[in-house]
Design a protein that fits this description.
The protein is of the alpha+beta class. 16% of the residues lie in helices and 30% in strands. The two termini are 27 Å apart. It binds a DNA duplex through strand 3, strand 4 and helix 5.
Length: 194
DNA sequence: CCCTAGATTTACT
DNA sequence: GTAAATCTAGGGC
């Protein structure tokens, strides 16, 4: 199992495309976290794109200590704290035309290590395990300690090939923002079996 | 320096 | 439905 995951890690150039394209391509891929040799993984089912030319992005006003990862290497992790207590994770993704960009992982479909996720979340409700950006970060023990981590190497956090991409994608306005609400940069996977 | 708002979640009333 | 948890960046004075 673990060897299969490692040989299918998405390469750097997967992320070196325009941010909204990568956001859509990431749907159906697998986010994998390894803690003490145990695998925790889920299928990415909802993403959002944020570019530096976008008023809703943390990077709109230029580089800061907090957001510098999104100006850096594509395929690395941008992790931020919101409302003081919650962590969320973006994957840095941008074409050369943009200074910064990232794809927010908003929801996962739990696949491996569900018992560990329940333990991390301190709940027993399968439905609420990873259906929000801060929830999945908690379930996978993603904190700012992992800030800037390269997700293209088989370390403790990476993204690998997932399920077939023959599913439909639904675009909507992004969640929880008040700026640039005309941009339909929230992407959800519509599973065939639903 | 003070104030406000925020890519959120949870526990209340 | 509303509030509380409390870190960070940005704007105003």
């Amino acid at each position: 199992m673990i060897d299969i995951l490692h040989t299918n890690i998405l390469p750097r150039n997967f992320y070196e495309c325009e941010t909204t394209i990568v956001a859509k391509k990431l749907l159906g891929k697998q986010l994998v976290r390894i803690i003490d040799g145990k695998i925790i993984a889920g299928i990415i089912i909802e993403t959002e794109a944020y570019r530096n030319d976008d008023p809703a992005s943390h990077t709109y006003n230029g580089i800061t200590e907090r957001n510098k990862a999104m100006f850096g290497t594509s395929g690395c992790a941008y992790i931020y704290t919101t409302h003081g207590i919650h962590s969320c994770i973006d994957i840095v993704a941008k074409s050369k035309r943009f200074k910064a960009g990232g794809v927010l992982i908003r929801a996962l479909d739990p696949l491996v290590g569900i018992e560990t996720m329940k333990k991390n979340r301190k709940i027993n409700n399968f439905q609420n395990l990873t259906n929000g950006p801060a929830k999945l970060a908690q379930a996978l023990q993603i904190t700012k300690k992992l800030y800037g981590m390269d997700l293209t190497t088989p370390d403790i956090l990476f993204v690998s090939e997932g399920i077939s991409s023959k599913n439909k994608i639904h675009s909507s306005p992004r969640i929880g923002i008040s700026k640039a609400i005309d941009k339909l940069w929230n992407f959800k996977l519509i599973l065939n079996n639903k």
